[in-house]
Amino acid sequence: MPTVKIEPNYKVSIPKEDREALALEIGQEVEITLRHAKPQTTYTPTASERRAIEKGRAEIRKGNYYTLDEFRSWLVGSPRQKARAKKSQTRTKTRA
After folding, report:
1. In the predicted structure, residue 19 carries a pLDDT above the cut 70
2. Alpha-carbon distance 51 to 94, whole Å?
3. Cα separation, 84 vs 96, whole angstroms
4. Residues 15-44, buried b or exposed e (16+ Cβ, 10 A)?
5. Residue 45: pLDDT band by 50, 70, 90 thresholds?
């Protein structure tokens, strides 16, 4: 299914193959019914982000990575021991 771009003033261009298939002519009114529409957004990474992505991919190719299970076990770690109560210090009585 071809996608269309919404232009200024919310004008929409119908792709040529669709115009020809529907035999649309200039000035003709068309009723549009949407069944499912979702906006498609794209993101273009910056030069520094592209370098970081490539660096990460190179590390993966070398095998330098952790699986999610390994990472999760590292986060959880071994069970910590509870802090021990301080030993009570005995006071020496001073005699007067």
Report:
1. yes
2. 72
3. 36
4. eeeeeeeeeeeeeeeeeeeeeeeeeeeeee
5. very high
